[in-house]
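Dear colleagues,

As part of the handover before I leave the project, I'm documenting each prediction I ran so the next person doesn't have to rerun anything. This entry is a single chain, and its sequence is reproduced below.
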Amino acid sequence: MHTELQGLGRLLPPQTWNKLLAEGAARRFSEGELLLRQGDAGTHVLLLTSGHIKVTRLEPDGEELLLAVRGPGEVIGELAVLDESTRSANVLALTQCITYVLAASRFRRILTEFDVEGMVLRHVIGRYREGEEVRAELAELPAEGRVARVLLRFASAVGGPRPVLCLSQDELAGAAGLSRAAFAAELGKLRERNVVATGRRRVTICDPARLRETLPSG
C-alpha cells in the first residue's frame, strides 16, 4: 500500500527524495527508542519512511514539552545540520520506525546538487512559524478549544479516519498549556460524547469531524 509522504518528502521532487534515500543507510528503531538527543551535534539527518515519531524539548525547569508528531516523509534533524549547531530537541519513536541515516555533508551536497536548498530552508522557517502561530492560537482558546486543537494537530500527522495518538495525557496537557486535571476533565467530556476513546498512553479520535466542531468558528 502506498504511503502518502509528509514534510520534505512531499515537497521535494521525487528524484531528490529518491537520491537522499539511495545515499542513506537503513536503520530501524523500536517503539520508545531515542532517535536524536537534544544537545548532541548535528552530524546527520534521518529520513523517516515508516512509522511515527514525537519531538520533545527539555525545558530549563526540567519539564519535557511535546512539540510535534511526525510521520513518513519527514527529514529529522535537518535544522542542526543546516546551521551546523546542536540538536534543539529530542526525537523518540512512537511506533516501530524505518529511517535512512544520511551524513550531514552528503545531505548538504545533495541539496546543492539538486538546487533545493532554498526550498528546504523555507520549509524549516515555515515549521518554526507554524509552531509560533500554534502557541499564539492556543493562548486565545478556552480549555475545550485547546484540547481539540492539540488532538487534531497531532492526529493530522498520524492520519486515517480514526487516528490513534500513542501519547500520555500528561504530554498532551503540556502541549495544550493546561494542567493534567484540566485536560483530563475536557477529555472526559469528549469521551462521554464518543468523540474520543482513551486507554493507557493512547487517545483514539473516533469522530474527527465532531472534534473540529468544538473549535470556535472564524
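The chain has two domains: 8-134, 141-214. The mean pLDDT is 94.

All the best with the project,
I.
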